[in-house]
Amino acid sequence: MGYYSLPESSRGLVEELKGEEFTFTTIVHIGIGGSSLGPKALSALFRERLSKEIVFLENPDPVDLGGKLEGIDPQSSLFLVVSKSGTTIETLTIFKILLKTLDLQLEGAPNIWTITEEGSPLDRFAATYGLRSFHIPKEVGGRFSVLSSVGIVPLTLAGLDTLHLLEGAGEFRDRFFRREEDHLLHKALFYSLNARRYPINVLFSYASELEEFTKWYVQLWGESLGKRRGGEGVGLTPVGLLGTIDQHSFLQLLIEGPRDKTVTFLKVGHFNTDLEIPDLHLPHLDRSDFVNGSTLSTLLNRECDATREALTRSQVPNDLIEIERIEERAVGELIFYFELLTSATALALGIDAYNQPGVELGKRILRESFL
Amino acid sequence: MGYYSLPESSRGLVEELKGEEFTFTTIVHIGIGGSSLGPKALSALFRERLSKEIVFLENPDPVDLGGKLEGIDPQSSLFLVVSKSGTTIETLTIFKILLKTLDLQLEGAPNIWTITEEGSPLDRFAATYGLRSFHIPKEVGGRFSVLSSVGIVPLTLAGLDTLHLLEGAGEFRDRFFRREEDHLLHKALFYSLNARRYPINVLFSYASELEEFTKWYVQLWGESLGKRRGGEGVGLTPVGLLGTIDQHSFLQLLIEGPRDKTVTFLKVGHFNTDLEIPDLHLPHLDRSDFVNGSTLSTLLNRECDATREALTRSQVPNDLIEIERIEERAVGELIFYFELLTSATALALGIDAYNQPGVELGKRILRESFL
Predict the structure, then answer these.
(1) Is A258 an interface residue toward B (CB < 8 Å)?
(2) What's the rounded Cα separation, in Å, for the pair B20 and B110?
(3) Which of B69, B142, B332, B346 is the most exposed place for a label (fewest CB within 10 A)?
(4) Is B315 part of the contact surface with chain A (CB cutoff 8 Å)?
(5) Which neighbouring-strand residues pair with A237?
(6) Strands A232-234 vs A227-229: parallel, antiparallel or unpaired
(7) Chain A contacts of B32, Cβ < 8 Å?
(8) B155 lies in the same domain as B187
(9) Closest Cα in chain B, distance from residue A154 (Å)
């Protein structure tokens, strides 16, 4: 599959960008779906360490977009217009509004770059005005594109060590193909064989910084596996949860509701910063003293363990992924973990993970509604 | 049910608070689950119009909390500690960290208020130090508490017209009990009769400002309906989606995947602000010109209509809720719409909507893990 070779093919991009002087302080990323979920996930995971702010303009919602526009200084911003097909209506519409509202000049503009498939309408547009244009390989689908220019350009510019990100991804892929990560195949087989019994797969992530990553997984899983097979709808429904918050919202349903879900816990071994829980004994609140003197990350991780144990005792099938730290190499591995798991599960289900024929009808109806 | 009378019983609270001078510029809301999802939803819906900033401290995540703590000026902030039981470990732990880190004084503190059940440990703690304490009625469950002091105190202080919010809620309730909103009963009946055929209920909201409201619904639906009934797990799994973004992530699964979902679309008739789509013809990008001269809200709503039509043609059961504008009265109606729908569906399923016995096991395991 196209995405397999990104850990190598994207290296040149990193080296190209690292050799340049970059003076913008803000990166405005205009894109939606596969064009935004990956870079958003990485940006949220590494927020503390990025040297540039990345603003994501995704939804054509007037209140949301209007608010974000007010905060953008066109003099210090680089605008990235990102669309695999080069025709995404939301992205192009937001771009037009930016051009008008911020009075951006197009001819030879050094602060407007495009990221799209070679030869797409957006690529040809860039060529017309002499804009810098990066390409998304034709054989890499949007939702598998985070390690292509889609994620690598903004994150490298923002100071992330994207070479390590690519290395981690490549190492996981190599181990997988050397059959050293066969647990992934077993998991894919379990999901596919039990698709009727467990049609819902939950990813329960324990770190606020993982919330956007979880959304990236939801899109990858849902869109890749929801397909027709011989006239019948197959697929698995992903649900993304955030611990500890969703222990107070969704856990009741997991424990006592229908046994139609598998749960994967995702936790972080060591946090890059931590907070101590003071040894404070407050009158009447002594029932909370059992965590005194511990740390917040310990509480978070013990809650993950306790929730997992409660699910196990309630016979809900579950597993655990633990990454040691949120650092580039480990996140690269994690990206390939989920991408390869998705590919393997699609294979076991006998469907094509890489197309999305179901969304064309809505696009046609939308176009007709304006005629 | 307890929450039925909130539209009247919370009026006194609004009048009390409106008669006071309030000099803080920031409200720091410390709470999780039912204590935060409702006020967060309202805060996101009315962000443009609030006169105070509300900061929500929910997840005991060191990176997330550490970052938020840096932005808090204790001199100009009011701290609301919110927990129905008065024993929520995450909330009390974050409160302790605030006390220590910001060096807050407790005795007679005018800037620390509590919101909890009368006589709870937190209420007694407040009494010990002479802190102002607001009560959540005993008979109102956390996830049905948004119109109690939980939501009314912070939103009234932030300048929302909470009397209109309560009025809208009361009017919808009255119409429902006068049998003028029987579509709600039909819907509840449909969900319960088809719980095996359609175990997943999607709320697809078309406005970024509705994202938090959608999370509030997910919690309300999942936790209220996921229950044991005679040893068997019953319940319906909620999924919250955001249009147009999730057209690029989840729609493929809805259209071509298994036919196990119902979809409710939620849209806003008129946005309080709008953006015009300029009449720009960009070379090679003419396929996006069909929206030129229209507005962003029109595009957003036409996308909602087109997606709904695509689902209808694909035989996915769906319905539409349209609110005319995001204003207090309409949002009050919407809150009662979903709360009454939840109660009616629980009744039809033969389960208790108001308890959550399944989450106790995890709490016990957590406590033991620290001993």
Answers:
(1) yes
(2) 13
(3) B69
(4) no
(5) A200
(6) antiparallel
(7) 244-245, 248
(8) no
(9) 20
Instruction: Name residue, tokens 């190209």.
Output: A16
Q: CATH number of the domain that B219 lies in?
A: 3.40.50.10490
User: CA triplet B150, B155, B160: central angle to 5 degrees?
Assistant: 145
Pairing type for strands B77-82 and A112-116 reads: unpaired
CB pairs under 8 A between A and B: 381
Q: Do residues B12 and B134 lie in contact, with contact meaning Cβ atoms separated by under 8 Å?
A: no
State whether A226 and B253 contact (CB < 8 Å).
yes
Contact A366 B302 (CB under 8 A): yes
**Structural domain span for residue A349:** 187-357
| A218 shares its domain with A339 | yes
Whether residues A63 and B271 touch (CB distance < 8 A) is answered with yes
B64 touches chain A (CB under 8 A): yes
Residues 6+ apart with CB under 8 A from A170: A7, A8, A332, A336
A274 touches chain B (CB under 8 A): yes
CB-CB under 8 Å, A362 with B306: yes
- Residues B23, B103, single domain; the answer is yes
**Residues found in chain A:** 371
Q: How many domains does chain B have?
A: 2
Q: Quick check: is B364 in a domain?
A: no
Evaluate whether residue A261 is within a structural domain. Answer: yes
- For B:161-190, CB contacts with A below 8 A are none
**Closest alpha carbon to B99 in B123, B128, B72, B124:** B72
Q: Mutation target for A interface from B248, B261, B281, B294: give the one with most A CBs within 10 A.
A: B248
Catalytic residue check, B21: no
Judging contacts by C-beta atoms under 8 Å, the chain B residues touching residue A240 are none
- Substitution target in A70, A296, A313, A363 with the highest count of B β-carbons within 10 Å is A296
Strand ranges for B157-231 from DSSP E:
200-206, 227-229
Q: What six digits make up the tokens of B334?
A: 């919407």
- Residue pLDDT tens, chain B, 371 long: 789 999 999 999 999 999 898 899 999 999 999 999 999 999 999 999 999 999 999 999 999 999 999 999 999 999 999 999 999 999 999 999 999 999 999 999 999 999 999 999 999 999 999 999 999 999 999 999 999 999 999 999 999 999 999 999 999 999 999 999 999 999 999 999 999 999 999 999 999 999 999 999 999 999 999 999 988 999 999 999 999 999 998 999 999 999 999 999 999 999 989 999 999 999 999 999 999 999 999 999 999 999 999 999 999 999 999 999 999 999 999 999 999 999 999 999 999 999 999 999 999 999 999 98
Q: Residue B104's CB: how many other CB atoms inside 10 A?
A: 15
- Decide if B223 is catalytic: yes
Q: Which two tokens stand for residue B30?
A: 């410390």
Residues A142 and A212 in one domain: no
Structure ipTM over 0.90, yes or no: yes
| A139 in the same domain as A241 | no
Same domain as A192, residue A155: no
pTM score of the predicted model: 0.97
Tell me whether residue A181 is in a domain. no
Whether the CB of A125 is below 8 Å from some CB of chain B: the reply is yes
Active site residues of A: 223, 248, 363
Same domain, A134 and A77: yes
